[in-house]
Hints:
With 220 residues, the chain is mostly helical. It has a single domain, classed as Up-down Bundle (Four Helix Bundle (Hemerythrin (Met), subunit A)), CATH 1.20.120.1770.
Amino acid sequence: AIIVYRLPWTWKCSKLLMKFIHAGLNTIAMILAIVSMVAVFEFHNASNIPNMYSLHSWIGLTAVIFYSLQLFLGFAVFLLPFAPVPLREALMPIHVYSGLTIFATVIATALMGITEKLIFSLKNPAYSTSPPEATFVNCLGLLLVIFGALILWMASRPHWKRPPEENAKLLRPIGGTPEGTEEESTVTDGSNTDKSDLRINSETARKNLKLDEAGQRSTM
């Protein structure tokens, strides 16, 4: 769901379609998270295991709560056509940052969970003796870290960013920003404008400095 906008073969699809795919994948993930949490609590209650005592459970429940809030606000602000464009532009950096933070938190929760399970389950042979089960799960943890690093790398690289749509200027309302390009147009146009202004100002300063030096020399 995070990299659905970052895949080059999806750039030919409309931004609205990609929004629905992004929201749909996140909804499926939220449903699976709720099912897994219900299964964990039922297993603990059936086995007389205390609930919410470990750091793994604290961080995991926190991630699910913030993920549900992220999903709700994403639907309300970015998918439904009622939120004004300035509000979307203001919330887009927060939405992106919180999504990446929740993703990294989920990876950390999974690593803590599989380690906790190994310590409690492997008694004979013990986890410290590195049995095949421990080696297998440790390799799974390394794959999770590599997977998380790749996703975060793709989500943070500018050249993986979805380019603005070709018909963005035709769809732009008077004084507004085209739908589906709030973040792209703001970042791209703003940076280009700032760079051009800096070049003009620097060139003007150099010309003025040369004129001042020439005037001083002629006076001397």
